[in-house]
Amino acid sequence: MRRTKPITRSIAASGAAACAALLAAMVPAGADEVIPTYTATYDVEYKGRGVGESVHTLRRDGDGYRFRSATEARGLARLLRPRPLVEESVFEVRDGVLRPLEFRLEDGTRKGEDNVTIDFDWAGGAAHVTKENGRTDLPLENGVHDRGTLQLALMLELDAGSVPAAHALIDDDSVKTYSYEVAGEETLTTPAGTYDTVKVVQRREGSSRHTLIWLAPELRHLPVKIEQRRDGETLTTLLLESVQGLSDSD
Q: 122-161, pLDDT tens digit by residue?
């Protein structure tokens, strides 16, 4: 695996503008692909024990894109989630900004009590969130994300040399705000190879949990490791096993 040079770019909090500039620069004359598509497979651990595998894919979908993550439990974890846990986001790029259109979550259980669908009605200015107990309508503002576009926006903004100060997320029946800070640079060895990475901390105000994300510039800032922690304890870890579509050799 080719190693990148040390990361020397300064990181500023001008995410949306930098992301728009990057998207514009990425589209040569006559090309229609704005964001590089890929497939990434992760090993999933919970409190240090292997519990499954997660496959993330980004594909073109008409004039837009479809991001999908499907996590298959294994071992005893299959008793709780016998079906794949699926998150799927359909989105477009509008004026250099990722704009979600549809989102769905299938919780992997037999009953599906935590399944969610979100329709982003930009013309009407509302996000329609449908769960088992009914529908909630939330006001929709420019720049809001679902879970899929939240990760992709971070990748694109880091690729442009910046990190967002914050992003708003709609994922169930409320709007949450996540803040970001760069916690340094690390060389990380994964089953997919060894990468120089930027380590980013994602936090939500009022939550005891935070997420550490290691993103590899060599892979267009794809996360190669993700850790969710609570009160100093590591809960869930995703570690990159393989990737197609982002390295120079693909």
A: 999 999 999 988 899 999 999 999 999 999 999 999 988 8
- Locate 48 and state its tokens: 């240090």
Is the whole model's pTM more than 0.85, yes or no? no
Domain-located, residue 9: no
pLDDT (mean) for 66-81: 85
- The total number of structural domains that make up the chain: 1
Q: Per-residue pLDDT for 70 more than 70?
A: yes
Amino acid identity for residue 244 in this structure: Q
CATH code of residue 102: 2.40.360
Q: Going by C-beta distance under 8 Å and a sequence separation of 6 or more, which residues neighbour residue 96? A: 19, 20, 21, 23, 24
Domain that holds residue 49: 15-27+34-244
Can you give the pLDDT at residue 10?
34
C-alpha to C-alpha distance for 62 and 49, rounded to whole angstroms: 39
* DSSP code at position 217: G
**Res. 218 pLDDT band, cuts 50 70 90:** very high
State the distance between the two ends of the chain, measured CA to CA, in whole angstroms: 12
Strand partners, 130: 117, 135
Amino acid at 232: G
Strand 97-106 vs strand 126-131: parallel, antiparallel, or unpaired? Answer: unpaired
The CB-based long-range contact list for 112-121 (8 Å cut-off, 24+ gap) reads: 116/171, 116/172, 118/146, 118/170, 118/171, 120/146
The span from the CA of 216 to the CA of 163, in Å, is 14
Please state the φ and ψ torsions of residue 87, each to the nearest 5 degrees: -125, 130
Total residue length of the chain: 250
**Res. 31: pLDDT tops 50:** no
